[in-house]
């Protein structure tokens, strides 16, 4: 993976030293909170409901074992022994003291990590397909492109005070696991006549106004990427609204001005900027690319896998659910679920982090990924090693066979932690997972995406859930709205609100009714919830959700 | 017609720990809502808020929150303040952790 150059090291160390002084001045009273707040936000420090929260960037979700061990160390030394992996492939610590945060940032810098631009109206952590470099359907590893963008966008002097935050995602596969159409700018690596370039999508986003991104350029030559992105962000920086926070994202700019106007302005700006890029960026890109070599995959006997699959039902279930096809037939991609039934989605203890680091070192070519679905991925594991990996995961509560199932829920921190939340999300996820585990219906229901947000900002991506749940405050009481039919895959569909919301006590039974209806209505076990929903429309599911309406009508 | 004034407490977060704090009758900051001053009059509430705002070295983001009189002192009327007074519902962390420790020592 990318190793810091002296420049990067110096930059990160410098920033940490600056922040240490800023904290000292805040505590001494030399800085007011109004003065200090933008400085702390530039370094990923939020003040949440019960405590400060530090959000650490995990660029394109990639970690090596030592970085994961350092995250474990931070969890133990400065927090309460765990960390929370987020829907933007980051990790959050929920309980640090302000005065400890400079030490945390120093410890992160020791392993080439930081919290820069994880908050504020800047270009945020660039996300990428969590199966990058391993997926069978990949045109190219998206991470070198993501790293190039990270370096270009970090501390970019023109883009430190954008109208609003700005999120980019990169995918190298047709099956879009990076949800590129729900980003301010989505980048898809595409191939045309043997040449690799980029499809650029602009103006997508969730939040209170969910909008699917539109194609701004269907094939951008590789060498034009940075000047083109610079043109987009520059156009947004001048055109984006600053008068209304809720209309400030580029999705609104695009909607209000039209994609044609945006394209014309970007093309005009691009023509100005292009000559300023001499090609140094492409030389640098070549160096970045060389720092993401494919691991030298071993070839060995896979008999241990076959034997375990034939004899161990637990392993078989894990293999069927949590493994994905690797480009090399002897290897598999392992999804380690951070969604044990009843636990908090995305949380991992320090011990679990160390176990995953050790496994990556021993069996996984030193490669670890964080997915936006709040799981951990070992992207390259030889099939012959899978029984050993499974046994270790199992011993540490990490072998839950539920990847892609009803209990593999995305949930934002919600009102248990977040100062912006309007309702809780985590306990709803816990209760749903426990209920379906109790019913033993999870594997029968099969693939489904359930996503929960604790406020309209939609960090839990509820619009993209096959079933989405949005927690709101209705007259001082938690209330949960259900959306149906969303999908974050290659087509990207925003789910539709099913009807009136449900109370905290009624939301789990409501979800249960939808899924029992699905089991009755489906063509057979091969028809997924989403397929059945698309075939039948919302009516039968709404009827199951609101049985009293039916009786009233009768 | 203006809305009738409902009783309030002054609350904020501690500058160093981030912990939820409340302004007590004697002007000190306390960690438990039941020890906060319950302010029945609007002018008094605003004066107390102003007092809190002059202490940025202790209290971050002070504001007035609705509360009601309970058996042991002020109690929350909204679930957000109830969570702030207790801690998260998924883990026994925050104030509830310390409250339990206190009970264990009684």
TrEMBL record, chain A:
SUPFAM superfamilies: Nitrite and sulphite reductase 4Fe-4S domain-like, Nitrite/Sulfite reductase N-terminal domain-like. InterPro entries: NIR_SIR_4Fe-4S, NiRdtase/SiRdtase_haem-b_fer, Nit/Sulf_reduc_fer-like_dom_sf, NO2/SO3_Rdtase_4Fe4S_dom, NO2/SO3_Rdtase_4Fe4S_sf. Residues 119-271, 408-544 form the Nitrite/sulphite reductase 4Fe-4S domain. Residues 52-110, 346-395 form the Nitrite/Sulfite reductase ferredoxin-like domain. Keywords: 4Fe-4S, Heme, Iron, Iron-sulfur, Metal-binding, Oxidoreductase. This is Nitrite/sulfite reductase. It comes from Aliiroseovarius salicola.
From TrEMBL, chain B:
Residues 86-106 are annotated as: Disordered. It holds the Pfam family DUF2849. This is DUF2849 domain-containing protein.
């Amino acid at each position: 993976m990318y190793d810091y150059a002296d420049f990067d090291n110096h930059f990160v160390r410098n920033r940490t030293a600056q922040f240490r002084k800023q904290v000292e001045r805040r505590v001494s009273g030399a800085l007011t909170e109004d003065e200090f707040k933008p400085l702390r936000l530039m370094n990923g420090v939020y003040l949440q409901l019960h405590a400060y929260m530090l959000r650490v960037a995990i660029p394109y979700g990639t970690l090596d074992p030592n970085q994961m061990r350092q995250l474990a160390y931070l969890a133990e030394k400065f927090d309460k022994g765990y960390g929370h992996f987020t829907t933007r492939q980051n990790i959050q610590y929920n309980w640090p003291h302000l005065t400890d945060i400079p030490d945390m940032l120093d410890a992160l810098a020791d392993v080439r990590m930081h919290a820069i631009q994880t908050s504020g109206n800047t270009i945020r952590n660039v996300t990428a397909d969590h199966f990058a470099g391993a997926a069978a359907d990949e045109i190219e590893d998206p991470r070198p492109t993501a790293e190039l963008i990270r370096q270009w966008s970090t501390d970019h002097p023109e883009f430190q005070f954008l109208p609003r935050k700005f999120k980019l995602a990169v995918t190298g596969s047709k099956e879009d696991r990076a949800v590129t159409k729900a980003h301010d700018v989505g980048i898809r690596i595409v191939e045309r006549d043997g040449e690799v370039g980029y499809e650029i999508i602009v103006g997508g986003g969730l939040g209170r106004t969910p909008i699917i991104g539109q194609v701004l350029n269907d094939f951008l030559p590789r060498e034009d990427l940075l000047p083109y992105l610079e043109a987009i962000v520059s156009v947004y920086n001048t055109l984006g609204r600053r008068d209304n926070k809720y209309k400030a994202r580029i999705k609104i700019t695009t909607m209000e001005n039209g994609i044609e106007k945006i394209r014309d302005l970007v093309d005009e700006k691009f023509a100005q900027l292009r000559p300023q890029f001499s090609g140094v960026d492409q030389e640098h890109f070549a160096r970045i690319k060389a720092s993401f070599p494919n691991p030298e995959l071993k070839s060995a006997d896979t008999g241990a896998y076959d034997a375990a699959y034939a004899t161990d039902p637990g392993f078989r279930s894990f293999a069927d659910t949590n493994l994905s096809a690797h480009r090399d037939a002897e290897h598999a991609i392992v999804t380690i679920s951070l969604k044990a039934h009843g636990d908090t989605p995305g949380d991992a203890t320090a011990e679990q982090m160390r176990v995953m680091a050790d496994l990556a070192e021993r069996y996984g070519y030193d490669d670890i990924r964080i997915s936006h679905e709040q799981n951990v991925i070992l992207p390259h594991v030889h099939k012959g090693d899978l029984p050993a990996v499974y046994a270790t995961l199992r011993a540490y509560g990490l072998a839950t066979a539920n990847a892609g199932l009803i209990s593999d829920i995305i949930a934002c921190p919600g009102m248990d932690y977040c100062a912006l939340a309007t309702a809780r999300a985590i306990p709803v996820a816990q209760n749903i997972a426990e209920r379906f585990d109790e019913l033993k219906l999870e594997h029968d229901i099969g693939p489904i995406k359930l996503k929960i947000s604790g406020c309209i900002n939609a960090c839990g991506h509820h619009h993209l859930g096959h079933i989405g749940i949005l927690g709101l405050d209705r007259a001082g009481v938690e209330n949960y709205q259900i959306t149906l039919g969303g999908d974050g895959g290659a087509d990207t569909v925003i789910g539709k609100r099913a009807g009136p919301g449900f109370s905290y006590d009624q939301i789990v039974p409501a979800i249960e009714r939808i899924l029992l209806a699905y089991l009755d209505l489906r063509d057979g076990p091969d028809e997924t919830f989403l397929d059945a929903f698309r075939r039948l429309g919302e009516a039968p599911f709404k009827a199951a959700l609101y049985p009293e309406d039916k009786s009233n009508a009768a | 017609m203006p809305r009738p004034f409902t009783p309030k407490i002054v609350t904020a977060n501690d500058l160093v720990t981030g912990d939820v704090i409340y302004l007590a009758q004697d002007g000190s900051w306390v960690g438990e809502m039941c020890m906060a001053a319950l302010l029945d009059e609007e002018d008094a509430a605003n004066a107390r808020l102003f007092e809190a705002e002059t202490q940025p070295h202790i209290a971050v983001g002070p504001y007035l929150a609705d509360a009601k009189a309970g058996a042991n002192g002020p109690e929350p009327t909204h679930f957000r303040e109830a969570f702030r007074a207790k801690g998260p519902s998924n883990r026994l962390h925050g104030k509830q952790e310390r409250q339990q420790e206190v009970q264990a020592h009684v």
